[in-house]
């Protein structure tokens, strides 16, 4: 059977060959009703677009920008791997960029450059989901999908894990093991912290915040130093860390200072990266989020918006799961178990 061609699609849809080509390569130039008719015709004749050939016709392949906070964080490395695979499967390329937590000026400079480059799509974990430069990029015809952040207004699409639920899962696990004084190591207004606040508040337990400057291994080392410097009678018996990098640094810091995991201090991480299962000094209990699938979902969503301009924004949320390992267990000290809030 001969392979269906653009001319076959055009004949069935009742449009020109050029309209079919625009539907495939420049969908923003074709109204929604005509695009739908062309897509139905493609299905009817069994037309399969050739991504490589289309790239040559338009002079380049479609390029999706992926901007994350820290490539040193294994979570983002796994997200990028999933995103690249999904883009490759769709005949698109991914351009990777790194900004940094709290580095607003660096992120702004990057977004200015990306606005000029006219990427076909942009996936970003922004420091600020309300950054006006994101709206500028969208106004210039580039769909934007927010990664690992909630967009409260729902004015643009987002792909994320339910971080509030993840924080609740971590804190509840520690509470169920008898801990009544918990610590959180990370950003105070992070949604994971908010989840921990909900759980400890509902249980009438105490939650101490140990702030970090960023989300790296060094931040965990510093948090561990601050934790062990507290008087023993006022020291939390368990700590929930904003991610596995912080948790790994904290475990190293406190064990070097003589604390045992989990008998002196129970520790929970977040992300469930390879650090949790293989690289930490003890098997790290961690809240799992499917990093690679989040990356794939973000690419599918931005491709959908590239092909269907004006589509209503979507909020794709993955449910986290707690993975229990050796870093947590029942509280040992009865006196700590009765610490008041």
Automatic annotation (TrEMBL):
<keyword id="KW-0805">Transcription regulation</keyword>
<keyword id="KW-0238">DNA-binding</keyword>
<dbReference type="InterPro" id="IPR028082">
    <property type="entry name" value="Peripla_BP_I"/>
</dbReference>
<feature type="domain" description="HTH lacI-type">
    <location>
        <begin position="4"/>
        <end position="58"/>
    </location>
</feature>
<dbReference type="GO" id="GO:0003700">
    <property type="term" value="F:DNA-binding transcription factor activity"/>
</dbReference>
<protein>
    <submittedName>
        <fullName>LacI family transcriptional regulator</fullName>
    </submittedName>
</protein>
<dbReference type="InterPro" id="IPR000843">
    <property type="entry name" value="HTH_LacI"/>
</dbReference>
<keyword id="KW-0804">Transcription</keyword>
<dbReference type="GO" id="GO:0000976">
    <property type="term" value="F:transcription cis-regulatory region binding"/>
</dbReference>
<dbReference type="InterPro" id="IPR010982">
    <property type="entry name" value="Lambda_DNA-bd_dom_sf"/>
</dbReference>
<dbReference type="Pfam" id="PF13377">
    <property type="entry name" value="Peripla_BP_3"/>
</dbReference>
<dbReference type="InterPro" id="IPR046335">
    <property type="entry name" value="LacI/GalR-like_sensor"/>
</dbReference>
<dbReference type="Pfam" id="PF00356">
    <property type="entry name" value="LacI"/>
</dbReference>
